[in-house]
Structure formats: structure tokens, C-alpha cells
Amino acid sequence: MSKPMSGAQKRKKKIEQKLKDAKLPKLDSFLKNTVESTSENPTITTSVFEIPHENSEKNNVIDICQNMNNTDDCDILLSKNMTIICTKQYPTDIANYIQNSVLRHLSVEDKQFIVEHGPCRPSGPFSRNAVGRCFDESFYYTVSKAGLRISRSWLCYSPELHKCYCQPCWLFGDNNIKHQEWIRGFNDWAHTSRGIERHEKSIPHKMACMAFYSFQNHNTVNENQEKQIRDEANYWKLVLDRIIATTLTLATEDIPFRGHRENNETESKGKFLAIIELLGKYDPVLTELLQRPKGTIKYLSPAIQNEIITALGDKVKYDILLEIRKAPFFSYITDSTQDISKIDQQSHIFRYVNVMYDKENKPVDIVIHESFIGFEIMEGQTSSEMEQQLYNNFEKNKIDIKKLRGIGFDGAANMSGVYSGLQARIKHTQPLALYVHCAAHNLNLVINDSVKNITEIQNFYEKLECLYSYFANSIKRWAHLKSVSSVSVSLKRLCTTRWSSRNDCLKALSLLYVDILKLLAYISLMGRNKDEKSKASGLQNYFQKFDVILIIVIESKILNSLQIVSLLLQKSDIDLLKAFELLQTALNKIKEMRNKFEEVFEEAKQIAISWGVEPTFTKIRKTKTTKFFDELSNDERLHDAEQYFKTQIYYRTLDIIIKQLEHRFNGMNQVIKLFSSILPINICSMNENELKHLTTSLVNNYEHDLTIDLVNQIIQFKRSFENQISKLNSVHDLAKFIIVDNYLIAASFPDLCTACFLFLTIPVTVATAERSFSKLKIIKNYLRSTMSQIRLSSLAIISIEKKIAKEINTSDIISTLANKKSRRMF
Questions:
Q1: Do residues 170 and 95 lie in contact, with contact meaning Cβ atoms separated by under 8 Å?
Q2: What 3-state DSSP class applies to 436?
Q3: What is the mean pLDDT of the chain?
Q4: 775 torsion bin: left (phi>0), alpha (psi -120 to 50), beta (else)
């Protein structure tokens, strides 16, 4: 036995082995290009086999873009070369793969192309050399002793090089073998037969042929790896299909994703993982995914959730922006609110009109859209800062401000200011953009003004809020009221910013009035303490007055008339004409009420009797003012309670509402007058001279969008369809009649169609922005207050535009993520 090596000998042997290993070429040098460079001595190394050659005319050397600066330049050049090669008569000719007199390196894609397109075997005639010899077509075949004719499929001929060569050896041969003429090209025509026989019997040739057949049958290592990648990608497509479907379901229904501890061992894993686990009980694909060992990629992490949510949100936003860009015009609607994290979130809404077509490209409908494209953090509160942010948003989303025709904001000074507000700044850049103050906000301001200017009405709503607080602040009193109530209605809290709040409060009070008075009387006698009894007694004394019952009846009638208008104004597809008609109807009802005090009084009287309240007014104490000794006139005041109520409360309330409705909606009235020539009712009722005058004014205002031919088009349209026009109720109906119902003649009235689209594009309210804030508070609540802005905006887009989200084709998203995932595995 040999003596064991000492420690020093072992260390010496280890160092020697490392030195030997360092001299060996790395495996990756035979597979890909490696570019190594340093700042001091940049060098480019190539990892390809090189064949020594005697001269560039007779020998071809395999090389790969050594003169290129980097591999990207090389790839671009090779791609261009392949485009040229495909146009040639013999695309697999070896001459096509020579650059700078050297045979370039072939990629797997090149080899696949050559194998799929077959060998280069022209039938002749063939070029002769100086002594008159040439290649012959008979060399393509060999004949056995028995006369059997067998094709030499490996043998090829290059018409450009005038040489024959072996295709398998060229593609898969050992470039280090001694004889390279069958790779570079053989042209010794005097000894062609002997050279062919000697080559096809050689071992390197046979090995190259075996490699060729293996490659042709997709049995190469690369092909096996690609197949494995394809199988892996198909599996991940199935996984991602289920994950994306789950994500869409949770996002569209505003359901939170994450839990306290996101792993399979905890019970608080979150709704996303809980649904995946539930589906895994019935779905084999997810079962296999969940059974994968801990630490492997499963596409279930929060990072992947964010990636998928962002991809889905971007796809929905992309589809919406495409529609906005295709529309002839659009309007911009915005508003802002503070979220749970005290961040000012701005909502971006675009209003536009497009024509819907069927499969045969026939118009079927005209749709008004108000589409949400996301939340953005407000960068400032001044109009100049908001203006810059708006322009940046337009530029980022590639939206042309030249097509902006309307802007809709609320009444905030920095938004609606005439001189330096955001609307004034936008109109300076785009004068054609009409500003419309939100009709729904305006209507709410009308109601608020009618309340705050009349003391008795203001006191009534304050007492109503006190009544709610009295019961809501005590669990026992609230439960007691609920137990004695005969209807399943609860008191409502008054909120001045909610448009339907006052009406809801009055309805609840009317239904619970008797039960409330009984309970207040009981508490005032049997209450637990003096303070509780005192408050109950005070509320009872106030609400059992006939004056209060009459106020309830009056306010209910007013608010019911305005509530219908308020709800219809909040519809996203409403146009200015419909809004104006609704407001005009409400205004007429309020004016009619002014002459119906006796009817209202009798109705209140009957209600008071049914509620057990004496129908008499509270007596007014006669007051006298101090009169100077030489003053002759006496102070005259209303001493009759009924007359006082009629003049100081009833008439004043109605007069304030009438005046406010006429004043606040004057801007809307001006827009209606501008477009009055295209209103169906005016087309029918006005004569041609009146229509011509109004149309000329409209054309002058929109000279970039309309031509003076609009005058002739409206007159011709009236003459042709006067009976049908009388049945149309709105501009939307008019546009649909021309473009959809009579689409063959739509091309005859292009300016009339354009004018209709302009009118329908102008916004009416910012209700869509207000609805987006409701989603904001649902998505980003106190439990999700740390949510990132990108995730918030994407979830909001998916939730608000859920119809588009459910119809998007997720195959592109799935393919991209699946291929990315499968490549990570190798």
C-alpha cells in the first residue's frame, strides 16, 4: 500500500488540479457568445470553432460577427440576412451563409430553416472549369451492383460557389477533422466519384448524418428542452387562467385579497388564497400547484397578485383609451376627495360618444360613455398646479387636447373660477371646451339655500338632527324605538352633501312620527334621569306642533319633485336637453305649488288629525317697538299665525327655490340655445329662416368642426323627414334616427351628425366621479389603508369598468406571464 499523502501534498495536488481545470475551455464557450470587456483593455472573445485555412478563395472558415460591437448588432445583421436569403431561388445554398469570405456560425433557427427547406440540389447545367470538367447530376445517386438506384440525400451543389458539399457535415460535422473540403466545398471534378465514395464511408460523415436525422426528428437536446418549456408554459397557462379568473372576480366585486398571514398553515390566509384552496379541491391543475413543495414558485404571492391586477387594469384602461382616441370629440370630468390615508385622490373621467356596429359592420346603436381611467394623487390645490397635472395626464395617455369640447367640475373656486379657475385656464388653451357646472351639485345648492335663509326651516332640520342623535346615541332608546315601530324603517342622519339625504330623513320621520311621539312621551315620564326626560320633553313639545307637521308636508312635496330630477341627472348617458327638460318640469311644479297653499294646508290638517295633533298654529305674541314722541305711524306686524306662515315661510321657501333654479341653471340654458337649431322640437316648429339664423350662430361658434353647409343639411332634413322628426324626443334620438335607422343617408348629413355628437359629448354632471369615490372608500378602507397607488387605481378601474374587464381577452396576459414563468425554470 502506498503511503498516505500528507496535508501539504494534498494542498499541492489540489492547486495543481485547479491550474489544469483553469486551462480547460468552459462548457458555455461551446454554446453561446461571451463578450468580456474591461475599462482598461476591452476584448471580444468568440466561442465558436475555427478551422485553419490556406487562403480566402478556396477555404471557408466558420466565424461569427467578430467585427460587431455586441451581440445585438450581430442579431440585427443576421435577421436582415435571413430576410434576403428567403427571397433567393436556393435559400439553403451554403453560399448564402458566407460573410466576408468566411462561413458564419449557424444558430439553431438557421439549422431548422435549412433542414425544413431541404438540400440545395439544382438539376443543372453546371459550370465547367478551365479543363472542361464539371459536376454531374448523376452524382446525386449511387447504383448498387444489382442495379438499385439510391439517392445521396446528403450531397448538395452550390450554383454560386460551383462546388459540391455535404449538408450534414456542414450543419453537424466536427469542424476539427483533418479533411474539410466537404464542408468548405469540393470541386476536384477529376476525382469526384472517388472523393464522394471515400467521404460517405468515413466515420465523421456517418456521425454527422446521425446528428442530422436526430435533429430532423426533433430529438436534440435543445428541442427536448424547448418541448419541456412548451409543456411547462402550457401548464402555467392553465394555472394563470384560473388565477386571473379569481383575481377578476375578487376585483370586480370589491373583495379584499390578502389576509393576516398568507400561508397554507394559517386560518387567516385571505380570500384570494382561500378561493384558490377551495378550487383546488375540485380542480386537478390547482391541486398539483398547491401540492408543490414550499419555496417553489406558485404565482400566488402578493407580488404576483399586484402584477396580475396591474396587467388587468392596464388592459382595461388601454381599451378605454382606444375608444376615446377614436371618438371625434370628448369631454373631461374630474373631482377630488380625501381617502382614508389623508391623500387627496383625483378621479379622471372622460365622456365620449361612439357608434356600435354588428358583425356585418352595420350601425346598431349610439352610446354615450362616461369612462373612468384611474385615480391620481393631487399634486397641488391651486388652479395652475391642477392645470399642469391635467396636461401631463393627457400627454401620458396620448390624448389630443384639440378634441376636447367640454369640461365638467363642481363649484369649487379653484375649479370654476371665471378668471383664474381651472376651467378658465383650460379654455385659454382650448376655447372650444364648454364649461358646465355640475347640475346635480347645483340642485343640491338650491335646496340648501332654501333651508339656510329661512329660520323656521333651518330650526326644523336642526331639531330633526337632534332627534336622530337622541335615539342613535343610546342603544337602549334605539332598540326601544325599533321594538315599538310598526314599519321596518329607521331614522336617518342628515347629511348636507348627500343629494337625497333630506328627502330620506323626511320619509323616515313621516313613517315613524306617531311611534316617536309616543316613545318621547313615555321617556319624559319614565326616563332614567332628569337630562333624558328633559330632552325627550323638549323634542316632544316641538314635533307635536301643527306648524312642524305643515313644514313636513311642504318640504316633502318640494323634495319629492326635486328628488326625481336629482336621480335622473345622475345617469351617465343623460344629455343637456333631457336635463334641461327635467329641471324645467320641476320648476313648473314649484311655481304651481305657490298657488296651492290651501290644498297643502288641508292635507297637513288631515295628517295632523290622524296623528293626534291639534291642527292649530302656535299663537304669535304681539310685539311693539319703541316709538318716539313725535312719531305718527304705528308699527304693523303680522299677528295672524296662518298668514305669517303663508307669507314668511311658504312663499319665501318657494320663491328662493324658483329664483335659484332660474339663476343657477342659466349657463345650461345658454348651451341649449346655442344648439337649439338641432333640437327635434325646434326643427319641426321653426321656419327655415329661424333655423338658418340659429344654425349660422352654431357654425360660427364651431367653425373648426362644422361647415356652413349645416344650414342646407338641416333644411333638407326637415323637408325630407318632417313627420318622423315630430316623433323624436331628444338629440340622441335624432342622431340614432340618422346614423342607425337610416344609415344609408347618413353620409348626406355629415355636419348634422357632427353637431349631434358635439351636443351629446358635453357633460351634465360629475356624478360619475362621485360614484368613483364610493368605490374608493370601499376598496381603500381602514383595513387596506397602506395600499399602493398603482394597486388602488388598477382595482378601481377593474371594479368601475367591470363590463369591459369581464370581456377582455386575457390570453395575451396569460401567454406573457406563462412564458416568463416557464423560462425561469431553466
A1: no
A2: strand
A3: 84
A4: alpha
What number of residues does the chain have? 826
Of 661, 714, 722, 724, the C-alpha closest to 689 is 714
Burial zone of 99 (CB within 10 Å; 0-12 exposed, 13-18 middle, 19+ buried): middle
The per-residue pLDDT for 564 is: 87
Amino acid residing at 724: Q
**pLDDT value of residue 449:** 82
Q: What are the backbone angles phi and psi of residue 467, rounded to the nearest 5°?
A: -60, -45
Which SS3 state, helix, strand or coil, does residue 509 take? helix
Pairing state of beta strands 434-437 and 404-409? parallel
Cell 406558485, residue? 298
Beta carbons of 110 and 172 less than 8 angstroms apart: no
Q: Are 139 and 187 in contact (CB under 8 A)?
A: no
DSSP state of 638: -
Whole-angstrom Cα distance, residue 623 to residue 639? Answer: 9
Query: Can you tell me which residue has the cell 387567516?
Result: 268
Residue holding cell 297637513? 604
- Residue 603 to residue 611: CA distance in whole angstroms: 12
3-state secondary structure 76-129: HHHHHHHHHHHCCCCCCCHHHHEECCEEECCCHHHHHHHHHHCCCCCCCCCCCC
CA angle 527, 533, 534 (to 5 degrees): 170
Find all residues with CB under 8 Å of 487, minimum gap 6, and list them: 511, 512
Identify any residues that bridge with 332 across adjacent strands, giving them in sequence order: 350, 407
Burial 785-802 (b: 16+ CB within 10 A, else e): eebeeebbbbbbbbbbbb
DSSP conformational letter for 45: B
- Given this model, what pLDDT does residue 147 score? 80
H or E stretch covering 482:
helix 475-484
Q: Which pLDDT score, from 0 to 100, does residue 40 have?
A: 37
Q: Contact, 604 vs 553, CB < 8 A?
A: yes
Helix, strand or coil, per DSSP, at residue 405: strand
C-alpha dihedral (27, 28, 29, 32), degrees to nearest 10: 150
pLDDT of residue 20: 59
Annotate 760-781 with three-state secondary structure.
HHCCCCCHHHHHHHHHHHHHCC
Q: How far apart are CA 166 and CA 152, in angstroms?
A: 10
Q: What is the pLDDT of residue 49?
A: 31
The structure's pTM equals 0.72
Contact call for residues 203 and 246 (beta carbons, < 8 A): no
Instruction: Work out whether the CA dihedral 307, 313, 316, 317 comes out positive or negative.
Output: negative
Contacts for 774 with CB less than 8 Å, ≥ 6 apart:
none
Helix ranges (H only) for 327-473 are: 383-396, 413-416, 422-429, 439-452, 455-472
pLDDT tens for 411-449 read 888 888 888 899 999 999 999 999 988 888 888 888 888
**What is the DSSP-derived secondary structure letter of residue 186?**
B
Separation CA 675–CA 579 (nearest Å): 14
Taking alpha carbons only, the member of 653, 684, 810 closest to residue 311 is 810
What residues have CB less than 8 Å from 516, skipping those under 6 apart?
Answer: 467, 481, 509, 543
Phi, psi of 222 (to 5 degrees): -65, -40
The answer to whether 433 touches 426, Cβ cutoff 8 Å, is yes
Query: Distance between CA 345 and CA 233 in Å, rounded?
Result: 40
User: In this predicted structure, what is the pLDDT of residue 822?
Assistant: 53
User: Quick one: DSSP state of residue 433?
Assistant: -
Contacts of 678 (CB under 8 A, 6+ apart): 698, 714, 731, 734, 752, 755, 756, 759
Rg of the chain, C-alpha, whole Å? 43
Residue 230, SS3 per DSSP: helix
Spacing of C-alpha 571 from chain mean position: 20
Q: Which residues of the chain have pLDDT under 50?
A: 1, 24-77, 825-826
CA distance 75 to 85: 15
Strands 102-104 and 141-143: unpaired
Q: Are 254 and 779 in contact (CB under 8 A)?
A: yes
